[in-house]
Fold this protein.
Amino acid sequence: MNHRAIALGLACLISLPLQAGAQGLRPSGGTGSGMGLARTPPAAALPAPGSTAAPAMRAADYIVAVVNSEPITNNEVNARLARVREGIASQGGQMPPHDALAHEVLERLILEKVMLQQARESNIRVDDYAVGQAEQNVARQNGIGVEEMHRRLAVDGIDPKRFREELRGQIMIQRLRERELESRARVTDADVEQYLQDQQEQADPAKYSVNLGHILVRVPEDATPAAEAAAKARAQAAADKARASGADFAALAREYSDAPEGRNGGELGLRPADRYPELFLQATAHVPVGGVVGPVRSPAGFHVLKVIEKTSPGMPAMVTQNHVRHILLRTSAQRSEAAAAAQLADYRRRIQAGQATFEALAREHSQDGSAKQGGDLGWAAPGRYVPEFEQAVEALQPGQVSEPVVTRFGVHLIELVERREVPLTPREQRDIARDAVREKKLEEAYATWAQEQRARAYVEYRDPPQ
């Protein structure tokens, strides 16, 4: 999973769809405890030491807009504008005209106000422990410590306390989005097939691989019409049986096929698509894994083809899997994130002192479906967990136990049991495709939803920002 550093001006992300599930594990069919994927928000780096970002505040100030009775000031726009300019410059982008950029920043701030107001009305709260964890993540992703980050913030005229409040606001908005939009991004098997098909059609055949099962009923060059009809009927019978539920294609290949590989079950093996005959590729282009086509006529005779395996273009051949356990404590009015984290920190101390095992504590205390298995989540490829959880896993070595980790589902203690390199399976390829489709649907749903929220808000524009 490609984790990018979170921007210094996190609230600037409001103009873009915030990435889903950034504070917790998302339900999925991928593991026994129902854990799933969410991705890291887009980001830029912190200002470099000695950067020339403009001061965050000016001496004079005035209101530029009012959002449902809450003001936005010229100084707020200028502070955000300076950081946006810093981000554009650090990435080598072309700087837009001042007025256009100031207007865009103002619109971002308006939408941020609208979202935060709705989050507060929805009783979404984020306590200091979660903000502290987010702050540590920002520093870590920028390759510095929290104290150094605070120093850079101060040099650039940004109050670290204000920065923490922006982090809090971002987490609130992310949780609001999760609450409002998770149910709108339903992905069907047909969606996944269409995505994989589109990827394949756009790809160079040398860049993806296919494994086909093959039955050939040969037709001699001098065959009579009757002999050709008989061969076609035999191939049709093989195809009909291959399409039947539970059919053993390998047995059918041994029975019907005249091709040399028929004796070994008809499997041609996983190979780059450009090493297959064009006829085979065209016949199977829109066929999902497990699908059967044919009979297909060629000069050699009639072919029946089964798609045994397909790799999606651009996907890695090998993947690093992690085997982890976790203990989940859910938060409530009676137990804050800080209290849950303190309890988990005590469990960690006991595990490291040899006074208890991770499995025993998970069975006794974890508030997750994996508790009966001692918190065991099994093997998982990258991208199957949400950012905070996955970042913690990636930072561990086998046998190590993490510090408490906050997600929107509660607070976790994580143990990395093992790590291994394995080939990417067809199922994992489909999981990656499903996540990509889901992310796209979330982006579309967010864009519509954000427009709806903005349209309902009362916004009064005053003097333009200077």
Summary: The chain has four domains: 10-184, 186-202+428-457, 209-310, 318-423. The CA atoms of residues 325 and 377 lie 6 Å apart. The chain is about 40% helix and 15% strand.
